[in-house]
Amino acid sequence: MDVFQLDEQPAYITKDSSEIRELLSHRNSAIRNQSLAEARLPVGKATDEHYHPRSEEIYYITHGIGRMRIESELREVRTGDAIAILPGKRHKLWNTGQEPLRLLCCCSPAYEHGDTILTES
């Protein structure tokens, strides 16, 4: 049985500048076709706009508020929102609140730096 505690997972920075704590993936468990991680964005910060040629993602906001852009569509997001991001769709997330923005990220196939294409410098 693979069970991992969020607070015990090491943080690392992804290619899009997110701070991630990977909970489950092929790197640490029997999971082979997806990954689950928590991302944290500090107050006033944003991810770098990017897309994934292969992976589809689900973002689920667990703490805070922000602004999400997928392609040309922009909207406010908050705790309890689930966001679908299809492969090939450019996306960016801003923390517009007064606390760290925290979200769960589900990727299928699992997150890989090599599947992240930055679209802004």
Fold and architecture overview:
This protein is mainly β and 121 residues long. The protein has a single domain (10-118), classed as Jelly Rolls (Sandwich). The chain contains no helices and eleven strands. The model has no long low-confidence stretch (mean pLDDT 95).
Main beta sheet strand tally, sense and closure: 6 strands, antiparallel
- As for the number of domains, it is 1
Strand content: over 45%
Low-pLDDT regions = none
Q: Helix-strand pattern, N to C?
A: EEEEEEEEEEE
Broad CATH class:
Mainly Beta
In the CATH classification, which architecture applies? Sandwich
Helical fraction: under 10%
Q: In CATH terms, what is the fold-level topology?
A: Jelly Rolls
Mean pLDDT equals 95
- General shape: globular
| End-to-end distance | 42 Å
Q: What structural class do the secondary elements suggest?
A: mainly beta
Number of strand elements: 11
Brief characterization of the structure:
The chain has strands spanning 11-13, 19-24, 35-41, 50-51, 56-63, 65-70, 73-78, 82-85, 91-95, 101-108, 117-118.
Show the helix and strand layout.
Layout: E1 11-13, E2 19-24, E3 35-41, E4 50-51, E5 56-63, E6 65-70, E7 73-78, E8 82-85, E9 91-95, E10 101-108, E11 117-118
Antiparallel strand pairs: 1-2, 2-3, 3-10, 4-11, 5-8, 5-10, 6-7, 6-9
Notable features of this structure?
0% helix, 121 residues, 6-stranded antiparallel beta sheet, Jelly Rolls, globular, mainly beta, 3-stranded antiparallel beta sheet, single chain
